[in-house]
Write a structure and sequence with these properties.
- The protein is an alpha/beta fold.
- The chain has a domain at about 120-475: Alpha-Beta Barrel (TIM Barrel).
- The protein has 20 helices and 15 strands.
- The strands form 4 sheets. An 8-stranded parallel beta sheet has the order 4-13-12-11-10-7-6-5. Strands 1-14-15 form a 3-stranded antiparallel beta sheet.
- Strand 10, helix 11 and strand 11 form a beta-alpha-beta unit.
- Helix 6 crosses helix 17 (about 425-450) and helix 11 (about 295-310) packs parallel to helix 13 (about 340-350).
- The radius of gyration is 25 Å and the shape is globular.
Length: about 525
Amino acid sequence: MLTFVSLWYGLGVLAFGGLSALGVHDLIQTRHAVLRNYPIMGHMRFFFEGIRPEIRQYLIESDQDEEPFSREERSIVYQRAKNVEDARPFGTRLRVYDSGYQWLTHSIRPKHIPDTDFRITIGGPDCTQPYAGSIYNISAMSFGALSANAISALNRGAKMGGFAHDTGEGGISRYHRENGGDLIWEIGSGYFGCRNHDGTFSPELFAKNAASPQVKMIEIKLSQGAKPGHGGMLPAAKISPEIAEARGVPMGIDCISPASHSAFSTPLEMMAFITQLRQLSGGKPVGFKLCIGHRREFMCIVKAMLETGVTPDFIVIDGKEGGTGAAPLEFANHMGMPLVEGLTFAHNTLRGAGLRDRIRIGASGKLVTAFDIARVLALGADWANSARGFMFSIGCIQAQACHTNRCPVGVATQDPLRQRALVVPDKAERVANFHRNTLKALGEMTGAAGLSHPGKFMPMHIMLREKDRQMVVADEVYPYMPEGFLLREDDDRFGYLKRWQRARADAFEPFDSGV
């Protein structure tokens, strides 16, 4: 009996010792954020991850599309971020015979593209400090929404890979500055980092921050895809000293982001504001970001460009697909125009006004894979931004706890204990890897199409299946409208001219009640 008890006691000690050693190892290792926050228990996730291909295929075959496709995207990002081979056997896992399936056409004479560090110059005729930017950059995510470690990892990765990091509207924090990566400074309606005590725009503070060599471009945020037309509030309880420092707001008071800007209220005033920011920044590229809503209002802005001769250096079209931890459900699901429709409308409106060659267009909204980038370039964009893809690269597992301050991997939390799981040097390398490997994949797709640069993709390179056994070329669905057609008033396809005639440069309100 004593021997039997001793045996079980010894097995218990052995099991406890083994688990204790595993727990210690999990806490000190730097590669897996889940294990650093959830030692031992976190291994259950990796167990199920190991059998996920079968689970994913079951879900796809069950027509539960949304989650499987996000799993596919996340898998691609993780593999590229970790420099793991992302080839898969047995062909596509997508249902290629379903309506809505899209693909790129390829050439019998493909090209080899040795250098896939694809770049474009951003800066119109009034810009004196143009920026040679990558065609794939980190989209807007604020410090406060993301943790200090997440911002540091993203910016360090951007520095390593030579691409840009959009600050989001939360201002330029110390974590944006300490690694030296290129910044796109987003100026929202709260004017964080360039605001007076009453929340209005401060030219002096703007000029001071814009003078930083890290700041390569200035982006005025009119709206974001996840909650267009909606303001926001950061409760006083969530404002830390570091957030207050970055935003230029006092502690102990709710921080309000109004739904609209106070620095301008008409399209003409907006052009004056763009001119002011360009002058105060020393001639750096200045543009704006928006999710298309009333199409006429975008045309109002374009008419103001024609009337004043002032054009932004760039426009970023944000699709409603974009994510945030602070969007009301109805806004996230049913407010704002999806990216493809918004992008093609903005691109064709600028073509119709004869301004497209003066203005670069960026696109953002669930752009994770090389095909996503190729598609938006074909439909009119000059470059793509991604938030979701780069969040995956630093360890986001889509726990959807962004708004709770309990992110399990330290990405979207201000809890110091939770964010220690995100080890900056390791995750920064993955950010750079993901960017490099995604552009490498884009280069391979570009060469396979017989092109020398992804900027040469056109709608005719995309095919869409509309119904079973029926396909259509994308330029039949999303055509490039003729240059100058709005000025000549000679083409009323898709109702462009009707809206153009109602648009006015001196106000966002229409001549009549149409939108």
